Amino acid sequence: MKLIVAVDEKWGIGKDGDLLKSIPDDMRFFREKTRSAVLVMGYNTLLSFPGSKPLPGRLNIVLADVEGLRIPGAVVCGSMSGLFELLKTFDSDEVYVIGGGSMYRQLLPYCDTAYITKMRFDGGADTFIPDIDEIAEWSISSESELKECEGIEYSFVEYHNSSVEPFPDGQSFGGRDKGIPELFKRYKELSFGLIDCDDSAYRAEAAAILRAVFEPLKDGMTAADTEAFISGGASFGDHLTSSRLAVAPDEIAALNSRFGSDADTYRVCVGRGDLDTFITRLESGESISDIQADYICAD
Ligand SMILES: NC(=O)c1ccc[n+]([C@@H]2O[C@H](COP(=O)([O-])OP(=O)(O)OC[C@H]3O[C@@H](n4cnc5c(N)ncnc54)[C@H](OP(=O)(O)O)[C@@H]3O)[C@@H](O)[C@H]2O)c1
């Protein structure tokens, strides 16, 4: 797991719920590093984004201790133990802790790499992270040349942690997170396989969701299968807000007999908001086949 942050000379990271300084080159660096990644953030950080919306093209996990909170396009986690269990299902190289102060403080020991944009100024911050130059386990592995933006000098510094802590064992989902494993079990039954869409950012987001949530939990479909399906995806016209999840190959025969057809491909047409609707319907106990019937069509 990696951490990415911009700090001022006092290791300040934010003020009044916002960044201290927005440097376009740093924003670009952040976008590139986190493309298609799994992002872990605190609720305040989500609220600081434009429209308080999750970042597109990434799988957003938001830590929030708010009863009943649902955030379209994000997975909400209500506790650190729930988060650890969830993170164990991902490839840790794909996971980035992106803020804010409370997340960096709690998750620093579990990160192997920190990408720190060091800005040489005092931004009068009210939110800080620990000075990792003072932590023995952390050392600098590379540093860019000094750059400058609107009078503020900055550099990109990469740190390495020589003593990464494993996620705690024996944790179980508690409180509000109790439903997560059950939800995952039910996802497995859904057997979705593929996303076709000509919006590459959304395809990447969908691919990340597939890899992260479906693929490790599914039988009979490998990551290579999933990738092959995705890269072979057809264009989907103007429907940039829609995507298509194909039914896994082993379901095609069953669907053909159910719908009296002989199609080689079935697709489940799913818009961005629908993933949330799925979850709500699953949680309310509707049967998988009823939910699928509303989305499946022969291609
Ligand atoms: N410079 C940068 O690169 C950078 C990056 C990201 C954010 N920021 C800045 O950082 C500031 C926000 O940081 P922050 O520390 O105030 O907020 P934060 O870490 O973004 O979010 C805090 C929220 O997460 C919840 N939370 C934290 N730990 C939790 C846990 N273990 N279980 C359940 N919920 C948990 C908190 O709930 P409770 O209140 O119930 O604890 C609170 O609602 C902003 O100014 C933002 O702009 C800077």
Description:
The chain has 299 residues and is an alpha/beta fold. The chain folds into two domains: 2-161, Dihydrofolate Reductase, subunit A; 176-298, no CATH class. Helix content is 31%, strand content 26%. The chain contains ten helices and 16 strands. Strand 2 and strand 3 form a beta hairpin. The two termini are 39 Å apart. Residues 178-247 and 267-273 have low confidence and may be disordered. The site of NADP nicotinamide-adenine-dinucleotide phosphate (NAP) has 26 residues, from strand 1, strand 2, strand 3, strand 4 and helix 2.
Structure classification: alpha/beta
What overall geometry do the principal axes of the alpha carbons give? elongated
Could you give the distance between the termini?
39 Å
Our count of helices gives: 10
For the sheet with most strands, the description reads: 9 strands, mixed
Mean pLDDT metric: 71
CATH class of the largest domain, named Alpha Beta
What secondary-structure arrangement, pairings included, does this model have?
Layout: E1 2-7, E2 12-15, E3 18-19, H1 24-34, E4 38-42, H2 43-47, E5 59-63, E6 74-77, H3 80-87, E7 95-97, H4 101-107, E8 113-119, E9 127-128, E10 138-143, E11 147-149, E12 152-161, H5 179-190, E13 192-196, H6 200-214, H7 223-231, E14 242-247, H8 249-259, E15 266-271, H9 274-283, H10 288-293, E16 296-298
Parallel strand pairs: 1-7, 1-8, 4-5, 4-7, 5-6
Antiparallel strand pairs: 2-3, 2-9, 8-12, 10-12, 11-12, 13-14, 14-15, 15-16
Helix pairs in contact: 6-7
The protein binds NADP nicotinamide-adenine-dinucleotide phosphate (NAP).
